[in-house]
Amino acid sequence: MSKAERTRQFIIEKTAPIFNTKGYAGTSIADLTNATGLTKGSIYGNFTNKDEVALAAFDFNLQQVQTILRSEIQKQATAKEKLLAYVQVYSNFLKYPFPAGGCPILNTAIEADDTHEALRKKAAGAINDWKDSIIKVVSQGVEQQEFSPSINPEQVALTIIAMIEGAMMITKLTGKTNFRNAIMQSVEKLIEDLK
Fold first, then answer.
1. What's the pTM?
2. Domain map of the chain by residue range?
3. pLDDT for 87-107, tens place per residue?
4. Backbone dihedral region for residue 147 (phi beyond 0: left; psi -120 to 50: alpha; all else: beta)
5. Alpha carbon of 23 to those of 75, 108, 109, 125: distances in Å?
């Protein structure tokens, strides 16, 4: 890795928690320089503008979440166990090294849906990738006769994602972890009933 690549990675790692916590609009150049200890010129010598830093920060934060999920899913043998890994991770997300500020998909989707097209596309792409990965697991469960062939894998995937993201949003908004726990129990029941 070249010095420029290391500097760029350093900037991403130091600013990613800020973007995920304060959002794009709430993150100032002063936040970026304070977090990195670099000058504005040094930051913009490695990135074209704040947008480029924000997009790279989103990718970094998303990668952290995906790494956690992949690691837990790979430990499971059956399709049902793989789906239940989502419940395990999101029910106990404080035990995992989630990005500061929580779920980057949720945070970015809420802020950027009408205000920042490039970030909106990143969040939408992340949702689609997540949906596709769940569809793959559900489809494998159907093929292996673990789940009923009448199940609609896309509907199951979208429902699981909506419930998880809804649980995270409600918990973050209210500060009530018992709400997250109640919703995650519903996700678990949904998965257990996929027979």
1. 0.92
2. 3-192
3. 999 998 878 888 998 899 999
4. beta
5. 33, 7, 10, 18
Q: How far apart are CA 60 and CA 56, in angstroms?
A: 6
In contact, 108 and 58? CB cutoff 8 Å: yes
CA distance 174 to 132: 30
Would you state the pLDDT for residue 43?
A: 95
Structure tokens that stand for 158 in this block: 């979208």
pLDDT in tens, 41-53: 999 999 999 999 9
Fold topology of 3-192: Tetracycline Repressor; domain 2 (1.10.357)
CB 157 within 8 A of CB 134: yes
CB 137 within 8 A of CB 79: yes
